[in-house]
Fold this sequence. Notes:
Structural class of chain B: alpha/beta
Strand content of chain A: 25-35%
Low-confidence stretches of chain B: 219-227
Mean pLDDT of chain A: 92
Number of domains of chain A: 1
Low-confidence stretches of chain A: none
Radius of gyration of chain A: 17 Å
Number of domains of chain B: 3
Oligomer: heterodimer
Number of helices of chain A: 2
Strand content of chain B: 25-35%
Number of strands of chain A: 11
Structural class of chain A: mainly beta
Number of helices of chain B: 6
CATH class of chain A: Mainly Beta
Amino acid sequence: xxxxxxxxxxxxxxxxxxxxxxxxxxxxxxxxxxxxxxxxxxxxxxxxxxxxxxxxxxxxxxxxxxxxxxxxxxxxxxxxxxxxxxxxxxxxxxxxxxxxxxxxxxxxxxxxxxxxxxxxxxxxxxxxxxxxxxxxxxxxxxxxxxxxxxxxxxxxxxxxxxxxxxxxx
Amino acid sequence: xxxxxxxxxxxxxxxxxxxxxxxxxxxxxxxxxxxxxxxxxxxxxxxxxxxxxxxxxxxxxxxxxxxxxxxxxxxxxxxxxxxxxxxxxxxxxxxxxxxxxxxxxxxxxxxxxxxxxxxxxxxxxxxxxxxxxxxxxxxxxxxxxxxxxxxxxxxxxxxxxxxxxxxxxxxxxxxxxxxxxxxxxxxxxxxxxxxxxxxxxxxxxxxxxxxxxxxxxxxxxxxxxxxxxxxxxxxxxxxxxxxxxxxxxxxxxxxxxxxxxxxxxxxxxxxxxxxxxxxxxxxxxxxxxxxxxxxxxxxxxxxxxxxxxxxxxxxx
Lengths: 169, 316
């Protein structure tokens, strides 16, 4: 009997998102501060952020990782927390650097994409941590499992601004 | 490998001698960044080096988010923390503190009656400043002091508005706490911070009150969640040959930390697997969402783990 051929049609990811908020903080535990733009430096991180290579002062700095150069979070997750769990989590509270809308972050692990004029490569999904609950006093750990954002390394640096487009390459 | 950062780095920006053996310390971020938020009446652990850690209430209010202000009375017969702060800490010095914790759940509508003895006023100064900033006057402070009280400069509007009742025990009798709280028995919040006899009198006076309407400030750390439901057990680290007892209030991770074992904890909630550790005697209690049943036969996620038996042996 002939083997049944399984059709595997090509699937092209089609999306375009936008940068809604930008945040950084210089040291572990300190609140994130909002900025209209951030300077991304290839291979190092965000100027002035706690995980910038060479000036590491973050909560996880004792465990160096390329993917902490810039971290992203979905606006849609903030809406889901409000809708499904009645938790008001603000863009400055999730402690990722870039809040995006319209970007399927969970699909981008291993891919490069454009973040404004910069190019980043997603290394892994972020995992939630109790550290955030400790700082915020909000029970967000469980609701953030599998949608806690994306860790990325910076391939091509530049200035990233609120309102910039996020696009596949 | 660099050590994990577990405290907030601050700098002493100002030290004020308030008299009556009391100093006020203002702590800020080195770049004047905002500090982690806190509730009215919250406290912080101040790390003074060589294992000396002391807890002090914050006297400024949460909206004043670029500084932590603490007031410290020198306890000459104390355990050394206040003497260290008075004698060794000056403006410009770095000092590490914990994240703020605790605080007073103020009654938004009913009267908040605060009962303070001496320097025990500090959490209520924070609460009063918080209420005043919001234009609220639903509180009264009964403040006992031996001689002139310190820190009145932080609540001048409250004093001028007649919402603070001062008792100088060098010239007048101590107030009867039961009489103070009696008129609020049906509504509002009562809170007390002061010396042990005052706390005892307060506890007696509000013993029949519901828990959510009374607050006693004793600077005890919060219970460690998810670790308090098993009896104490022995912990032996086979590689480093270290032995300790894990108690519910410290937990497995806290015990490992105290032993100086640098376990690579990441999520702290049992999902990332960074702290997986081999075990050989137990059986452990697994609360993670990472390990398969087969892996649990010889591995444990220690950030949420515990022991169901009397002795846990880890390969550390």
